[in-house]
Amino acid sequence: MLTERNQERHDLLGGREHTDANVREKQQLLREWWGVTDRETLLAALRWIDEEGHRMEFDRVARYVATRSPEELVKVRDTLKDNAQARQELEVVLAHHAKLGDKSLLGWDYSRYITLCRWGHLVGYLAEDEAWDRIMPVARRLQRTFDSWKDLGENYLIGREFWSQEETERNGPLYREVYQHLLDDPASPWNRCAWNLDLTGKGG
Known about the structure:
It is built from 11 helices and no strands. The chain is globular and about 55 Å long. By secondary structure, the protein is an all-alpha fold. It has one domain (2-192).
């Protein structure tokens, strides 16, 4: 989703050619959005996603909601009227948790994990083999967890809404347009690569 949104290449591990300008741009992006400045901070970010991610907080809010009556939730909503982010988190959980179940925000978290691996390779924090060794197990987990590219894309959008009320308000519709484009365009990777593609590396 983010690769498409940024108009980057799906067929390059790093998303872009390895030029000085592209490296500098991604280094800045990693620093500003993730606090990643070197290999160690990249690995720390990957560990956080793998062990916690936003799905941990999503599930925590869901457990809280499960202990409250509808009347109590009305009061909770009222107490959050001046906290847009917390209100957004509550509303996203109420709207989606029951349907998602054990999937939680796995698609959102691990799509970002893969993106970090790709960017980490572009800027030189991960060797090519290292990046693939981290990406492929995650890709197989996503394939086992979700039914289709559509299913994964929906989870990404839900996760993004949970992650940031501000960003959702700022450009949420653009991401929904990207999602629809990936579904509809016959040339998109979602339509060119079958969801059940063999990811074992064992061939036919």
